[in-house]
Amino acid sequence: MNGKVYAYVSDIVKSKSGYNILFYDFPGCVSAGKTLEETIKNGKMALQMHIEGMIEDKEKIPKPSSLEKIIKEDKDIKPEIRILIELEKLLPIKKH
């Protein structure tokens, strides 16, 4: 790891069985949990695995979007909670 930490915005929404977590910069990356704590933990693991898969497939890792950009572009999304998930990555990030 290069030691640099990247923070990705995630949205947590209530579901019938608990919560779902989605990532703005990684549309196919989702996870869930019965509690908020479990959802955040599962979300971080899902994001790490998603990025590892992208690295294996030689895909570029997106630069974290700013919260301001997300709020401006995703006016229809109303998450219960919006948090940052911090990760370290191996490869340079893709420029927007």
Please give a structural write-up:
It comes from Brachyspira aalborgi. Residues 14-88 form the HicB-like antitoxin of toxin-antitoxin system domain. This is HicB family protein. Pfam families: HicB_lk_antitox. InterPro entries: HicB-like (IPR031807), TA_system_antitoxin (IPR051404), TTHA1013/TTHA0281-like (IPR035069). With 96 residues, the chain is an alpha+beta fold. It has one domain: Double Stranded RNA Binding Domain (2-Layer Sandwich). 29% of the residues lie in helices and 39% in strands. It has helices spanning 36-56, 67-73, and strands at 5-15, 18-23, 26-33, 61-62, 81-88, 93-94. It has a four-stranded antiparallel sheet, with helices on one face. A two-stranded parallel ribbon has the order 4-6. A hairpin with a 2-residue loop joins strand 2 (18-23) and strand 3. It starts with a strand and ends with a strand. 17% of the residues are buried. The mean pLDDT is 86.
